[in-house]
Each structure stands twice: as C-alpha cells, then as structure tokens.
Design goal:
Blueprint (H helix, E strand, L loop, with lengths): L1 H15 L6 E6 L5 E6 L4 E4 L5 E11 L2 E10 H6 L1 E7 L5 E8 L8 H29 L3
Length: 142
C-alpha cells in the first residue's frame, strides 16, 4: 500500500510540477505555494554594477498562481567562500531582494541554498571551460 501511495504521489507531483523542455524545477516549498524554475541554458558569467564577477540566470517564480520572471545571481567570491547572498532582480536588472545561503546546505530547508549551490557549480564549470578554451587558443596562436 505504501508503494502505491508513493507512486501516486510521484505521478501527482510530476503532473502538478510538470516541466517543459525550456524550464526545470529549482525548488518548491513543502506546502506547494511557491515554485521556482530555472530557464535551461540561461546561465552566464558577467559582472554586476559593482564590477564583481557574477553568475546570473533567468528564473520563473510561481506563488499562489501568480507567475513572475526574474534573474538571480551569485558572486564568484561568495561561491569560493561557501556562503553569501543570492541576489534577485527583475528582468531589467533592478534589485528586488537577497536571500542568505550556505553552499551544500543539505537540510532541504532553503531554496536559496539549493539554487546558489547549483549556480556556483555551473559557474565553476563555465569558468573551467572558458579557461581551457583560452589556453587552447594560446597554443594555436602564431
């Protein structure tokens, strides 16, 4: 009986929080009133207005049936120190709010920690790829 209930719960969760190809689930509250999805492929390395290296991506937040599009970013130096603030802006880059995070917070209590952990991991991968491409281009220069 427990297995059937878990299966029904899984299919219900997939139906309610179904994902399209362009978006994937980044976090959801236990009561389901807030869902955060990230736009696949939207992450990029850049600098903020304070000239700090950041990793920014596009998100879709659904709260009580209202959908809002926003950007979130983490600072590279905070990824390296393991804690900081996940900053949220509107789509034009105007500051909205911040949320504290500690990387690798496995408690499942913080959507900000989960999102920041994924963004820092993506930032590191993009940085390593960029460095490898730059090294390769130097090897091939005349």
């Amino acid at each position: 009986m427990k297995k059937i209930f878990a299966l029904i719960l899984t299919f219900t969760t997939l139906a309610v929080y179904g994902q399209t190809d362009d978006w994937f689930l980044a976090g959801v509250t236990v009561d389901g009133t807030y869902k955060l999805e990230a736009k696949r492929g939207s992450g990029q390395m850049t600098k903020n207005q304070a000239n700090e290296f950041i990793y920014v991506a596009t998100f879709r937040a659904t709260s009580d049936g209202v959908i809002k599009y926003e950007k979130k970013y983490v600072k590279w130096n905070e990824c390296n120190q393991g804690y900081g603030q996940l900053t949220t802006t509107d789509m034009q880059g105007k500051f909205t709010y911040t949320a504290d995070f500690v990387l690798g917070d496995g408690s499942g209590q913080s959507i900000a920690a989960s999102v920041a952990t994924d963004m820092c991991r993506s930032y590191k991968q993009a940085s390593e790829k960029n460095a490898a491409e730059q090294a390769k281009s130097k090897d091939q220069s005349i």
